[in-house]
Amino acid sequence: MAVAEHVTKKDIEELEGELQGYRSFNEFNEDFLSIYRNSSMIVKHQMRSSSRVVKIDGIPVMFLWCDFRNYSSTIRTMVPLEAMGPAVKSSRLQEIIPAVMKSASLSDTGRFRYNASESPGNRLLLEEMGFYLDEMSFSMKIDTDRLPAMGSIPEVRQYHVEDIDDRVKVQNSIFEDRYRIPLGRADILIEMAKRTYIPDASWFLMKYGRIAGYGQIMKSGTRKLLVNFGVVPEIRGKGLSRDFLIWILEKGREMGYKEIYLDVNAGNIPAVNLYQTTGFEIVEKRVKWYFKEY
Description:
This protein is 32% helix and 33% strand. The protein is α+β, with helices and mostly antiparallel strands. The protein starts with a strand and ends with a strand.
């Protein structure tokens, strides 16, 4: 029987060596140990409360650090422990996530999501645990010293906080999807309050005197990341996206950014083609996995 136990200070001490190898299973795992060591007592308590050591027949087989939500939880770090290999049959692995859900008193209608690098090893384990592959995304990078020329110089206007309603409107138009929760003013204000936000690095594309696109550069760890880039549906396919993209990248170069990254859904073929023909290269492949009890 699988049991998920709350992580204790003693667990963290005993698992220190294995937690230091958090990237060996998945390079997108977060560094629980370093974050924990550099956090306040309150945050440490919260991190322990949202972490579990899963045992099967009394043998510790997995460490998980999660953001628990009743209907959709996120696994931030998953570390298979050394005892898993020789001690656990693959048929028992499907007991792990239900045990975690039970320990956190989560609804059995909820689901877990987990972002992982693409590799045969983690794919096999996650499938045996009952996860299913939802979608793949690419992390792409461009050297800003090697940008192509624009076909024509686009008309661009810098975003300021007083333009918040215009930004809400254009982003909801660009990324309209019946499954997507529409962006609101509060979402943007929260984003602008974060350390990852870069003032003066957000722009509107203008066409015929109207806002026709948006894009911005943000911080992501040591990287600079192009986010929220796109143009409204009615002007797509006319070359404006490419010119606007190159314009933003040139601005990034002027700001001292030698490399700029972006993330894109692998199934978004027009966007992938745009980025690749502009000079972006795929540097990482990320798979989004889901677990749901039916």
